[in-house]
Amino acid sequence: MSSNTLLDRSLKAVWHPCTQMKQHETLPLIPIVRGEGPWLIDADGRRLLDGISSWWVNLFGHCNPRINAALRDQLERLEHVMLAGFTHEPVVELSERLATLTGQRLGHAFYASDGASATEIALKMSVHYWRNLGRPEKSRFVSLSGSYHGETVGALAVTDVAIFRDAYAPLVRAGSLVPTPDSRLAQDGESPADVARRAAAVLEAYLADHHRDTAALIVEPLVQGASGMVMYDPEYLRLARSLCDCYEVHLIADEIAVGCGRTGTFFACEQAGIWPDFICLSKGISGGYLPLSLVLTTDTIYAAFYDDATSRGFLHSHSYTGNPLACRAALATLDIFEQDNVLAANRGLAQRIGDAVREKFGDHPMVRHLRQRGMILAFDVATERPDFARRFFAAGLEHGVLLRPIGNTVYFMPPYVLDDLQVRHLVDGATAALVKALA
Ligand SMILES: *Cc1c(COP(=O)(O)O)cnc(C)c1O
């Protein structure tokens, strides 16, 4: 089957995500036939370096031999069983190992299949917790401006990205927004920690007024991904934690994008020295192999649901909750973290990527706010071109790199397996793409 025919069939039968389909009249779809480490290989044999980990999910390369082997083994044992009334080794072991990674502070794992569902589970658990405690009025949420927590109707309540939300506003019971601690907002003489303190002061005023009906604050720790890799100081998380304690409001850490080592520590919250009441994980947890998400929470939350009354339990479910194949992929992923000492190795890799990006873009006259947190790098391009992102993406493809700017923000979020030549290829590709996109 020629790739052209495949593209025609795809455009006819597949409604692609996050896409105005009409734009594919001019921008062709790319048929991928194979993956190999950080490379995606298309139907013509062209190799693309996956600089954004296929929407931030891939950690250890495509078709990773170790994850493949674990999945083959699991396939021969058990592909799936419902998790209500049944259990299995992969889901138990994964839950135990994640609990250990939190030092047993968040020792209860509830499973789903995608990130938005994890957000909704955390929101529902928070509200149900307060209801079980006889405080049903605590049912509202607060999030940061520019926040992204998923696109289902419930998750949109705490998502502040207009293009994803506006069309569905009548369906959404919107939460409240408080200012983002975005380090770029620093005024003369202000440090990122000062910006964090200024933003936390507004959060404090909000909670002082509204804590009686507020269930939880939800944040993307350290990096707000979808609104353009907005980075902020860990001081904000420390202050948010103590304000949430003071005002009896849960803190939900949406680590769907920033978890699994992305920012340098396994959980981003570790860099602030705090633990939230809920951690949402998805994306990288299965190594980028299979849909899997989960919410970790504390003994205190868990205990509030443990009762003779069925209705006080958390009755939420998804058909594929705790899927054994996805859990096995996650266990193989955690094995790689341990066996290869990935967090330490990533410190060196992040430094090398940072050096290469700063060398090419640090003095570029149109580059602003070059920033990095672990394996996430970003900069803003001072251009008025409304089609900048699409032009940059298309030009990157011509130079063998997959990079998809968000608006005017170019970012790198590659798998953790790049060697020096691949780092060079990625940064050279971005350099060429920037020239073409601005031409
Ligand atoms: C991707 C993402 C989500 C949503 O996950 P899906 O699997 O796409 O539903 C939620 N929160 C954050 C921070 C994300 O990056």
TrEMBL record:
MF annotations from Gene Ontology: adenosylmethionine-8-amino-7-oxononanoate transaminase activity
Pfam families assigned to the protein according to its UniProt record, in alphabetical order: Aminotran_3
Predominant location category: cytoplasm
Gene3D superfamilies in the cross-refs: Aspartate Aminotransferase, domain 1, Type I PLP-dependent aspartate aminotransferase-like (Major domain)
Listed InterPro entries: Aminotrans_3 (IPR005814), Aminotrans_3_PPA_site (IPR049704), BioA (IPR005815), PyrdxlP-dep_Trfase (IPR015424), PyrdxlP-dep_Trfase_major (IPR015421), PyrdxlP-dep_Trfase_small (IPR015422)
Site residues by UniProt (Participates in the substrate recognition with KAPA and in a stacking interaction with the adenine ring of SAM): C18
Essential cofactor(s): pyridoxal 5'-phosphate
Residues recorded with modification N6-(pyridoxal phosphate)lysine: K283
PANTHER family noted in UniProt: ADENOSYLMETHIONINE-8-AMINO-7-OXONONANOATE AMINOTRANSFERASE
Function: Catalyzes the transfer of the alpha-amino group from S-adenosyl-L-methionine (SAM) to 7-keto-8-aminopelargonic acid (KAPA) to form 7,8-diaminopelargonic acid (DAPA). It is the only aminotransferase known to utilize SAM as an amino donor.
Name of this chain's protein: Adenosylmethionine-8-amino-7-oxononanoate aminotransferase
Organism: Aromatoleum diolicum
